[in-house]
Amino acid sequence: MNALFDQSALTALAERLVKAARAAGADAADAVAMRSVSQSVEVRDGAVEESQRSEGDDVGLRVLVGRRQAVVSTNDVRGDGVAALAERAVAMARVAPEDPYAGLADPELLARDFPDLDLADRALPEVAALEAAALRAEAAGRAVKGVSKSGGASASAGIGGMVLMTSGGFCGSYLGSRHGISMQAIAGEGTAMETDYDFSSALHAADLEAPEKVGRSAGERAVARLNPRKVTTRKVPVVFDPRIAGSLVGHLASAINGSAIARKTSFLKDKLGERLFAPGIAIVDDPLRKRGLRSRPFDAEGVANKRMALVADGVLKTWLLDCATARELGLKTTGHAHRGASSVPSPGPTNLHLESGQATPEELLRDIGEGFYVTDLIGMGVNMVTGDYSRGAAGFWIENGQRTYPVSEVTIAGHLLDIFRTLMPANDLAFRYGTNAPTVRFEGMTVAGV
């Protein structure tokens, strides 16, 4: 494993690419070199259904000739391949349209210190260990009373390294791993069957939830959905389970993405500095959180990044910017550039979360005479240009402050500004995903049923 992720070899490759680009006539260039290995096992009904192992290399080179840029990528650089790749990139850039905002990051913005974020668990488990974990998860799910079938369980592990090199002198690298376990359970029989799932994902295997807990949760969720009812259309308070509450934070991040702001395709394009949420609400992006699923010591342009409040005391404080969108908007990058091997940098979030409130989840429900507790969302009916929100949903009806019977085949609709304005978070925030939120409540949504 250590040989596979020899960062010096990736660094040497990226350096050769940048030097070859300059030799071919590029005014500036940057290169990313990535290497990854992963393995996974899927089981169903107590037997292994599929076992996979993959290894991959990806190399990307961006060159700039004046304000013209081009990106080329490959997974095979051997012999004179580096020189040929660089020459092709420069030729492409010379005929590309001018982009007045293209360019490398300003030197004063580059990261100088690379904090240890503890992103890599170098010991990948053996296939037998993955099989055992998946089987344990499945067995726990099938053991739940009311579960009739298994939809399968899986366990996976992987590790990857990357290097970023620029002609401006930046060189940075990091290594990250990922471990996961999941199970899908099916409850009921015939046309009355219901299904649900659960999973756990972490950078370090030691941080995963026990397979038995994952499987049992999947089974219990599926059984709880049996015999769902429909409801008539009405406006009621809506509560989102933490598993889906992060989607609202994701919608905010999409709406304040610098690309959307520059194109004027966001319903928040004129809202910077305005109050969108109630006082006390905070939404944070933290790329430097130790063992965070999206943590990184620098962004995809080599820019230093930091923990940043996107919303503080309910007020929208910033856009998410890379260098190009920052130049277009007359601002400074926020260190949010992302990039794949075959693409130019573009802005996006890292570890996002809505900070906890004071009330318990039970207290959020206590004064709701009738409402809807949503556990699953279906479809993508969110218009980021207008802010209109409409999603298929399933969950549980709330009566007199308590979750009661399951509900399915309904649609919830409203506007994201109204959702943000009335949003109340509970105190049960847990960092399980890339984007996290506690249980949240908001008011006046239309629940469209029969």
What does it look like?
The chain has 450 residues and is α+β, with helices and mostly antiparallel strands. The protein folds into two domains: 7-222, PmbA/TldD fold; 228-450, no CATH class. Helices cover 22% and strands 36% of the residues. The chain has nine helices and 19 strands. The chain has helices at residues 7-23, 81-95, 127-142, 211-224, 242-255, 258-263, 323-329, 361-365, 416-422; strands at residues 28-44, 47-65, 68-74, 147-166, 171-187, 194-202, 234-240, 283-285, 308-312, 315-316, 337-338, 346-347, 352-354, 370-378, 388-399, 402-415, 424-425, 435-436, 440-448. A six-stranded antiparallel beta sheet has the order 3-2-1-4-5-6. A hairpin with a 4-residue loop joins β4 (147-166) and β5 (171-187). α1 crosses α2. The radius of gyration is 24 Å and the shape is globular. The mean pLDDT is 95.
Indicate the mean pLDDT.
95
Strand content: 35-45%
Shape: globular
Question: Which ranges are low-confidence, i.e. pLDDT below 50, for 5 or more consecutive residues?
Answer: none
Entry keywords:
22% helix, five-stranded mixed β-barrel, PmbA/TldD fold, single chain, 2 domains, 450 residues, alpha+beta
